[in-house]
């Protein structure tokens, strides 16, 4: 596999200037050209990542159950409607298996919708989760979707006494019938913040810890 399949417009990424102990800033790919790609100015909460021409950065793309990481150089700036950084195309990449993306079998409510046409509101359908990880979810759906179909999702996770709402987008990895009347879809999160991912991972680890306690 080549890195081209992951460097795509609207792909959420994380960027760090520190190679040894990454301090991640959230960004998004806005344009892809030969030899370079453009990203929004990376932010960590309200703090932007200031880069100068020639600075080397590590780029992180979260996948389902793994991360893609590569090194790029900052080539310059461009201003469209918003300021953008230009980064060099990577020579190589590493695929890192991520243990924190443990998959938790769980039954809980989820609402999903197909991406609406411009000017229309999404029509959410209530359904059930089958399992979840920090990288994606497997859930019951009404229809069989082609791989790559974009979906909007929202669900609530209970952490202690606090309910956290997660609203994310994703793309279908695969879907198909699991019985005569039920259809399942595996969906990879494509637009998820560090905070949302941390909440999901904490929820999973809490549930796993409770299940391991002696009764």
UniProtKB/TrEMBL annotation:
<dbReference type="GO" id="GO:0035438">
    <property type="term" value="F:cyclic-di-GMP binding"/>
</dbReference>
<keyword id="KW-0969">Cilium</keyword>
<dbReference type="Pfam" id="PF12945">
    <property type="entry name" value="PilZNR"/>
</dbReference>
<dbReference type="InterPro" id="IPR009926">
    <property type="entry name" value="T3SS_YcgR_PilZN"/>
</dbReference>
<feature type="domain" description="PilZ">
    <location>
        <begin position="97"/>
        <end position="205"/>
    </location>
</feature>
<feature type="domain" description="Type III secretion system flagellar brake protein YcgR PilZN">
    <location>
        <begin position="8"/>
        <end position="90"/>
    </location>
</feature>
<dbReference type="Pfam" id="PF07238">
    <property type="entry name" value="PilZ"/>
</dbReference>
<protein>
    <submittedName>
        <fullName>Flagellar brake domain-containing protein</fullName>
    </submittedName>
</protein>
<dbReference type="InterPro" id="IPR009875">
    <property type="entry name" value="PilZ_domain"/>
</dbReference>
<keyword id="KW-0282">Flagellum</keyword>
<keyword id="KW-0966">Cell projection</keyword>
């Amino acid at each position: 596999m080549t890195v081209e399949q992951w460097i795509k417009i609207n792909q959420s990424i994380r960027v760090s200037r520190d190679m040894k102990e990454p301090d991640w800033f959230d960004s998004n790919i806005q344009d892809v050209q030969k030899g370079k790609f453009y990203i929004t100015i990376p932010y960590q909460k309200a703090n932007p990542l200031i880069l100068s021409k020639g600075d080397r950065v590590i780029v992180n793309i979260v996948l389902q159950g793994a991360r893609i990481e590569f090194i790029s150089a900052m080539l310059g700036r461009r201003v469209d409607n918003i300021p953008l950084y230009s980064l060099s195309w990577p020579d190589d990449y590493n695929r890192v298996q991520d243990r924190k993306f443990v998959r938790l079998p769980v039954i809980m409510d989820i609402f999903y919708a197909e991406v609406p046409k411009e000017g229309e509101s999404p029509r959410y359908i209530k359904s059930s989760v089958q399992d979840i990880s920090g990288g994606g979810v497997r859930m019951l759906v009404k229809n069989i979707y082609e791989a790559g179909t974009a979906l909007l999702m929202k669900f609530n996770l209970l952490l202690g006494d606090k309910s956290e709402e997660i609203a994310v987008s994703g793309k279908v990895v695969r879907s198909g019938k699991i019985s005569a009347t039920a259809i399942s879809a595996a969906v990879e999160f494509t637009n998820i913040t560090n905070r949302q991912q941390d909440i999901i991972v904490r929820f999973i680890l809490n549930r796993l810890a409770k299940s391991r306690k002696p009764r």
